[in-house]
Write a structure and sequence with these properties.
Blueprint lengths: L4 E5 L5 E6 L5 E8 L13 H8 L9 H9 L4 E6 L4 E8 L3 H14 L4 H19 L2 H13 L13 H4 L4 H11 L5 E7 L3 H12 L21 E6 L5 E9 L7 H12 L5 H9 L3 E10 L4 E9 L4 H17 L4 H18 L3 H15 L5 H9 L3 H11 L5 E7 L4 H8 L8
Parallel strand pairs: 2-6, 7-11
Antiparallel strand pairs: 1-2, 3-5, 3-6, 4-5, 8-10, 8-11, 9-10
């Protein structure tokens, strides 16, 4: 990967980061705002996501069709996503069309009009999106897991909102939320591909340089004390039982974050992992099983999810908890740890060969750490993790008191589920 990460700041505070990749023929640009679902009040649940949709529905210069045609008409695409702590609007096209990407994305970010008829139409669209996710048990169980881990708190509410919450949003709510949060101090632009940093800044300065100043919204802490195992069952006539387990971890600055990443890889992030080998290859309990690590500023979550034949659920849970127990009892072997390191580094390097993923890397780094993380430094940190540190991370995080579990299943007896997870890890950690 040729080129370096470069960062500039406009006089009003907007930060612009680039990664020049001269061997590529495309450019990808993202405009980020540091606002997401965890910044919402209960009455605002789903407002960040609703606003994300509305920015594609018309500006002072373009209607919704003209917005998409402006980018797709030069062979590109544009999209957006909302997370717990940020929202990103991005587009990609041939590098010769970068100025068009900059103009269109800046236009929707700064000059959307929120036409009343578009709001009503999009309300129906988002209602269908919510229903679509509810009809996908593998997706629904993840939302239920968040609700189980953070009941009654912003991180426990659905990103999309609910049909009830989005029905109450008015134009003035969207405009207020937009004005309060889409300001210079909350805005980052990241661009990767065959671009020149100075030319990128020169293109964006007149388009984003007039954004008003503002102060980022605060959010409530996501830290939670261990309360013993928490189980939520949603009874539904499904062909499989979908189960998701979660354990609290530390946040972005936590000293164990690299050990936890390797722990997740060893546990279930690939086909060589312990859970894949045990649950699928040895016992045939499921088609897929995976673990993952989500890290936010102040808290994290290590999750395990699988779709299992309902009649084999008890056995699958027993095997899963036993694998967790083994990680607490005994450190991974030298070979297993090194393979996890090489897998993590290799996946990162392959990911960063893409202009889109470079754009995402810069944005997530700047919003999460206020600087762009050097992949080489990340690799060094990973290589320094010892087997004992992975074992300690397992003991500190994968204990029964921090366990939450969500299940979408034809089952009706939640007490039976609770009895099946028993006392969790019996290793005394």
């Amino acid at each position: 990967m040729n080129g370096e990460y470069r960062l500039s700041k406009l006089p009003n505070g907007v930060r612009i980061a680039t990664r020049e990749m001269e061997h590529m023929h495309t450019a990808c640009m993202g405009i980020w705002t540091g606002i997401g679902s965890r910044h919402e009040t209960a009455q605002e649940c789903g407002l960040s996501h609703f606003l994300e949709h509305m920015l594609f529905k018309g500006t002072k210069k373009r209607d919704s069709r003209q917005i998409t045609e402006a980018v797709e008409g030069v062979g590109g695409y544009l999209n957006a996503f909302t997370t717990e702590d940020h929202t990103c609007y991005y587009a990609k096209a041939g590098a010769t069309h970068f100025d068009k990407l900059a103009e269109v994305l800046s236009d929707i970010y700064c000059h959307s009009v929120f036409a009343p008829q578009e709001i009503e139409r999009e309300r129906d669209v988002i209602s269908e999106e919510i229903s679509m996710y509810r009809d996908q048990p593998a997706q629904h169980v993840q939302e239920l897991l968040s609700e189980t881990m953070w009941p009654g708190r912003p991180l426990g509410r659905p990103l999309t909102g609910t049909v009830d919450s989005i029905s109450k949003f008015h134009r003035k709510d969207l405009q207020r939320f937009w004005r309060e949060n889409y300001h210079a101090g909350n805005t980052i632009v990241t661009v990767a591909g065959r671009v020149n940093h100075e030319e990128v800044v020169a293109s964006l300065a007149p388009r984003l340089g007039r954004l008003h100043a503002g102060t980022p919204r605060r959010y409530s802490s996501g830290r939670s004390r261990s309360q013993g195992p928490r189980v939520q069952l949603h009874t539904q006539d499904t062909g499989q039982t979908h189960v998701a387990m979660g354990f609290f971890t530390g946040g972005r600055r936590d000293r164990q974050r690299f050990a936890l990443k390797l722990l997740s890889v060893i546990l279930g992030e690939n086909m060589s992992s312990r859970l894949f080998q045990q649950l699928r290859e040895r016992h045939g309990f499921c088609y897929s099983v995976q673990s993952g690590l989500t890290i936010l500023s102040d808290v994290g979550l290590l999750s395990i999810s699988a779709g299992v034949d309902t009649g084999k659920l008890q056995s699958a849970l027993k095997v899963t908890l036993r694998e967790i127990e083994r990680l607490c009892e005994k450190a991974p072997t030298r070979t297993e740890l090194q393979q996890a390191k090489e897998y993590t580094v290799g996946q990162t390097l392959m990911c960063l060969e893409s202009t889109t993923n470079q754009m995402l890397w810069m944005g997530e780094s700047l919003l999460g750490y206020r600087s762009i993380q050097d992949p080489c430094e990340i690799e060094q940190q990973l290589q320094q993790v010892t087997a004992a540190e992975v074992q300690q991370a397992a003991c500190d995080c994968l204990h029964h008191g921090g366990l939450g579990m969500a299940v979408v299943s034809p089952m009706k007896d939640v007490e039976k589920l609770i009895s099946w997870i028993g006392h969790g890890c019996d290793c005394g950690c």
